[in-house]
Write a structure and sequence with these properties.
single chain, alpha/beta, Rossmann fold, six-stranded parallel beta sheet, 36% helix, globular, binds adenosine-5'-triphosphate, binds magnesium ion, ATP binding, NAD, EC 2.7.7.18, nucleotide-binding, pyridine nucleotide biosynthesis
Length: 201
């Protein structure tokens, strides 16, 4: 059986909290690969950086890890991103459940809101979910179907993309919060220089 991890996110920008979570779950579940899937562009223009910038930052951040890959599935699909569609696309790429186990990785904040996602119960049938600890959020599966989720403690990284965006807007450094190549990409493209960067997604 092939074992594939899926790390969904806006990745605006990708940071070391995302990377540590993916690396820990890869090792703990002996995953063959972890696929990072940046979300599509939301309808409201300007709320997040262009999909192509978020995709490229994710590629830059993951390029050195032979088990990390990036999928364009969500950014190339029209309309809003729903994880149930991401899972269907990953099934199509990686094969049926008879040959491939999918593990969808979420931080504690996302796991707490997951029952509000489209077709949530179908999602739980399509993949095993892995909830990871995140500073500032309680990690619990009390609200979720039995045996659908495994909770994993990962090294505490008190980093969020929204805090990184605010730091850039305020002229504060993001070195060591995001990979070096991502700092350089943010500067090259002039991302996050305006105001209104502080809302988490
Ligand atoms: P924002 O502040 O804009 O919401 P974010 O840091 O939460 O950004 P997302 O792209 O929204 O990043 O998150 C993608 C996934 O990564 C989610 O499942 C989220 O819970 C998880 N995640 C993000 N940061 C961390 C972290 N520091 N530790 C563990 N999990 C994290
Ligand atoms: Mg978030």
């Amino acid at each position: 059986m092939r074992r594939i991890g899926i790390m969904g996110g806006t990745f605006d920008p990708i940071h070391h909290g995302h990377l540590v979570a993916a690396s820990e779950v890869q090792a703990r579940f002996d995953l063959d690969e972890v696929v990072f899937v940046p979300t599509g562009q939301p309808y409201e223009k300007g709320r997040v950086s262009p999909a192509e910038d978020r995709y490229l930052m994710t590629v830059i951040a993951t390029a050195s890890n032979p088990r990390f890959h990036v999928s364009r599935a969500d950014i190339d699909r029209d309309g809003p991103t729903y994880t149930v569609d991401t899972l269907r696309d990953m099934r199509a790429v990686y094969g049926p459940s008879s040959s491939t186990d999918l593990f969808f990785i979420t931080g504690a904040d996302a796991l707490n809101r997951i029952l509000g996602w489209k077709d949530a119960l179908e999602m739980f049938r399509m993949a095993h979910f892995v909830g990871v600890t995140r500073p500032g959020f309680e990690l619990t599966d009390d609200h979720l179907p039995a045996h659908s989720v495994t909770l994993v403690e990962v090294p505490a990284m008190a980093i969020s993309s929204s805090a990184c965006r605010t730091r850039v807007a305020d002229g504060q450094p993001v070195w060591y919060l995001v990979p070096d190549g991502v700092v350089q990409y943010i500067n090259k493209r002039g991302l996050y220089r305006g105001s209104g960067n502080d809302t988490p997604v």
